[in-house]
Amino acid sequence: MTNERFLGLLLCFVCGLLVSFCAFPLTGAAQQEKLRLDHLHQLANRATEVVEVSLDQTALKALTKLTALSEGSNRDREKLSGLTSRLRGVYVRGYEFEREGEYSPNDIEAVRLQLRAPGWTRIVQVGGRGNSYDEIYLKQGNDEVDAYAVISTAPKNVCVINVIGPMRLDDIGLLDREYGISNCGKHGNRRKSR
What we know:
Blueprint: H1 3-33, E1 49-56, H2 57-67, H3 74-86, E2 89-96, H4 105-114, E3 120-128, E4 132-140, E5 145-154, E6 157-167, H5 169-179
Antiparallel strand pairs: 1-2, 2-6, 3-4, 4-5, 5-6
């Protein structure tokens, strides 16, 4: 092997390593925004009501087209269409049970553990009677939220929401008004604002 060919192969190898190292943090950051929720699917067998939503970027693009047909002001529709076109994913897991004790605190702790990763911040934690808890987490970028997550638990239900993509705080309210995601898809049982 000639020295020129060896140096050429070595240069290609070094360039490949540099590209790999540069791409890895971006991939890692995207993976941190999307929570691993597959372990919660086991709860579906014990639940009386199940809401499982997995909208990746392709499904969200289709949703953007449907948004144009929704009711509401033109301004809200345009805002919602712009928001859904920027999002990279919406994932909801909601389970309601007939009896208490159908899910383990470890099921929820596995989600919380992911939200302890760098960049995530818990901004709301509310506890109530009967071991009911609501938590909201944000993963912030420069001037916008890169992702947000909600964990809502009660003795007979659990709900986890993960929305990925650049958005402002008022965008989160718009998403909730339009799709009721904070109720895990239960449009008939929306919480009243206080």
